Amino acid sequence: MAYLEKRLPPMNTLVAFEAAFRHRNFTRAAEELHLTQASVSRLIRQLEQGLNTRLFERGRRDVTPTPAGEVLAETVRRTLGDLAMTADLLRGESRNSETLTVFSELVVASLLIAPCIGAFQHRYPDLTIRVFTSSEPLEAFDKDFDVGLRSGRWAEHSYLIEPVADDAIFPVCAPKLLQGLGGEVTAETILSCPLLHLAQAGGPWPDWKHFLHHIGVSPPPTLKGPSINSYDVLLDFAENGEGLALGWARSVKARIDAGRLVRIPNMLLPLPDHIAAHYSKRARPNPIAREFVALLRETASPLDAFSG
Q1: 247 partner at 20 to 30 Å CA-CA among 24, 79, 191, 232?
Q2: Per residue in 235-250, pLDDT tens?
Q3: Of the residues 90, 121, 143, which one is the last residue of a structural domain?
Q4: pTM of the full structure
């Protein structure tokens, strides 16, 4: 641990790097940090010089992390997050039983939290419940929370993870597109169809390559088709007949029930315990958060109601 001052990059360069990595844009990072774009650019350049490596490829508007930038980002986000949570504890800003703060993905909030939040508030009428929703990963959330809810089990080094509900994915498309395929759709048929790809930030989402391997098809090295960074917009594209999309069973059910999308039959990738609660390992536990998660688990519809 000796000579840390010489070995560690300046903290302000790491904060600027984390924001730039998350936004993929120096200007938006500057707005978040209340700095100028030139200041963020200078801090990133200072960090690159200190590490003797390039962290971003600069475009006309956005920036793209290099492989070195991806490696650094994983450590920086974990370390800064741990520091922030520890600082909160030392300031005495840890949880209390009169407040429940929940961070949730947008889809999880709509599907699981919305149906039971009223019942939980009725159970604890004096409890202040705060729900923050975002498409950003919970590691990027800059506020303290008692429990984070999302799809996937990531960052297990920082969080205690408790399963809430299963999920599954399967191909969906517009009814006319399925009719145009004619007859039974096989795994090989999928490769001849236009495919829509999800590029949403947050973690290693199952993609077409994962799905095709699961159903016994070896995909080519590159799968063509547009990438969309919003799941809802991805499904909008599918509704408009632009191609096949992978739909998460719980979140796509309403569109299927309304007849706007149809499921390709006999193709399913189960995702056991995919929706999970995340509790910080460094935070003082709030027992009411555990009770809230237990209610979510009890009220979540069984998966066979969505993916039968």
Answers
A1: 24
A2: 999 999 999 999 999 9
A3: 90
A4: 0.63
